[in-house]
Amino acid sequence: MAISPSSLFPSLLLVVALAASALVGGGSAAFACGRGSPAAGLPFCQPGLPIRARARDLIGRLTVAEKVAMLVSRPAGVPRLGIPSYQWWSEALHGVAKVGDGVHFGGEYPAATSFPQVISSAASFNASLWELMGKVVSDEARALYNGLRAGLTYWSPNVNIYRDPRWGRGQETPGEDPAVSARYAVAYVRGLQQPSGGARGFSRLKVAACCKHYTAYDLDNWNGYDRFHFNAKVSKQDLEDTYNVPFKACVVDGKVASVMCSYNQVNGVPSCADPNLRRIVRGQWRLNGYIVSDCDSVSVFYNEQHYGSRPEDAAAYALKAGMDLECGGFLGQYAESALRQGKVSEADIDFAVTHTVAVQMRLGMFEGDNQPFRDLGPRDLCSGAHQSLALEAARQAIVLLKNRAGALPLSPSRLRTVAVIGPNSDATTTMIGNYAGIPCAYTSPLKGISSYVKTVHAVGCTGVACAREQPIDAAVEVARHADAVVLVVGLDQSIEAEGRDRLDLLLPGRQQELVTAVAKASPGPTVLVIMSGSPVDVSFAEVDPNIAAILWVGYPGQAGGAAIADVIFGAYNPGGKLPVTWYPQSYVDRVPMTNMAMRPNPSTGYPGRTYRFYTGPVVYPFGHGLSYSKFTHTLALAPSQLSVQLVGSRTEQLNSTLNRAVRVNHARCDGLAVPVNVDVANAGDRDGAHTVLVYWRPPAGHAAATRQLVAFEKVHVPAGNRVSVALVLDVCTHLTVADAYGIRRIPMGEHSLEIGELTHTFLLEADTLPRYK
Ligand SMILES: *[C@@H]1O[C@H](CO)[C@@H](O)[C@H](O)[C@H]1NC(C)=O
Ligand SMILES: *[C@@H]1O[C@H](CO)[C@@H](O)[C@H](O)[C@H]1NC(C)=O
């Protein structure tokens, strides 16, 4: 028997791995095109030439086997051209993470700044914060790369729509709203990717980000369904106005360098074999970058979903669909035989490799030691400024859900002792959620609160599961003798995680019993702090008169405990808002997690999903969040009437206005950006930040969202002051609905804008002007 490539492969990998590990921590850089490289002087090594020409030059020099070896996430390199091996898989969801094989903390590089989990950062509704965090993360990523401890290709952020409150990975996302997710994607990706200062042209990348997981992936493991086998049945309408919105924004506006396809199928086609990768992501959205599989996706769709009768078919499906890089080894094993069998062409392989190599060149990986950002090093990890931003981000992430009779903030000088109780009261790793790294340091809630007042501590539950025998009585005793109680309860990765969806929305085990008993025993105010990525049905606490205040802190990152204490004791005025609807338990009793439909179905009683479509009871609505101040809105400027001119032929125009909704591509869109100005007054006695949320309510009759957030802006308003906020609505992007074919249309008729307590109505009609040429 001939020696198969697969039996050669492991030993090759071993040699390369040894060579790479010898370099870790050493001084010499493992970059292509360095001094003494056999390729020095060749066109692909010349930074002055266009990337496209350099990539073409390199591809032209490679053998088929060398190119096939580049289709996988751990290519061995091409020693004869001085190209070192590379690990594509690094992660930086909310700080450089240790997930993925590309990052190795240690030595002079022991840790990185750990920001709040994404769902928490989303609660800040502050796009400049998102971008700034991306910038800090990419500074630290470059520092690690310079120390040969990380790659430059980061498979973050996760911008899937948080569709169902049970999803174990909802914590990784910016929430349920497509507009917020889109804005988050663009801001964070810009922060990661954009080289500032010393930039050499627009196409240069500081690090390469990746928006994942395209598309409609948001079920991990629920009730016998898992992500490796799940076929998400999604309507064209939901794809267009919900699932694809953040991906499109990430590519079109964020100019992301990569998109990852997912494990699941969408309407019977595995995402990584879906020709829409090439047609939509690369074709329509014009991705300038590479498409990577989720890890082992190709093997998963071949072996688990039985898509393709031979492995070569599966390899061909992926390459033909437009996947350029596989996290795993399937293509390394089968792409060459697929080529021999005529299932793919060499051009298909070149097409893929061109995209990955071009990204490496934009990162500067083919410029020898002459790397951009060479000045970033160990002192840039966990710098004072970076750690302050982690604290600031945690403060901005905190959402005040309930504050009975202004119970908060507490005044530390009036309290002799505060009891700090609960399974998350001294949390450390729980605070950083998943896809995390090694943080610089932790401030747990107990530590944070202890820096303001004298504390007594009891866990009450030995872990978040809180089953069977628990030290609840001891906690009640501790509460009885304190002047106030802070109860920190909630979830952790043992309850919600990748590969682990929840079955219910309640506090696990006996946590509710602990909360109720402690609050009853406490002679002073009880503050309930919920630490969780996903919503919890805490309606019992909302109505319990013994519970003075409730905070949701998400997974607040390394500085979480300091931020929690700053809010409780009034050093920081909370301004976060919920990025997801908090449903009651009865919601998940009625709704199978497998139903992907966003829209309600009156004939089956299906209630629909998220604030955009679901109109039933909630524990707390999307956008809810109190402050220690009171903000009011006045509308200073808004349209009273709008008209849209039509373009195209008479027939097109007639057809286009069917059902009183104009196809966007039959509308003359220039000049249809409408200013909306809002004045925000702070009637309280504390300075504070407030996010103006502008919701649009389209005319009835288009199976559209009842309300859709179309703009938001966070502003700082000093006590007793007024600040004016200028927003812009673009008719052709914001005021559109998707029809049943997924085609965007502008509905005619009465539209409203809802901003806080204000409602403003205006009429939008199609103009009957002569035909536009
Ligand atoms: C009208 O539009 C629909 C799609 O919206 C299309 O399928 C149909 O062919 C159009 N009819 C004409 C006459 O253009
Ligand atoms: C948004 O975040 C940035 C970065 O932390 C901060 O400087 C700014 O004040 C925040 N905006 C508001 C209105 O709070």
UniProtKB/TrEMBL annotation:
GO biological process, one term: arabinan catabolic process
Fibronectin type III-like domain ranges (all copies): 690-759
Gene Ontology cellular component terms for the protein in this record: extracellular region
Keywords tagged on the record: Glycoprotein, Hydrolase, Secreted, Signal
Signal sequence, start to end: 1-29
Compartments it resides in: Secreted
GO molecular function: alpha-L-arabinofuranosidase activity; xylan 1,4-beta-xylosidase activity
Stretches assigned to coiled coil: none
Keyword Ion transport: no
Domain of life per record: Eukaryota
Pfam families: Fn3-like, Glyco_hydro_3, Glyco_hydro_3_C
Stored InterPro entries: BXL (IPR044993), Fn3-like (IPR026891), Glyco_hydro_3_C (IPR002772), Glyco_hydro_3_N (IPR001764)
Principal subcellular localisation of the protein: secreted
Descriptive protein name: Fibronectin type III-like domain-containing protein
Organism: Zingiber officinale
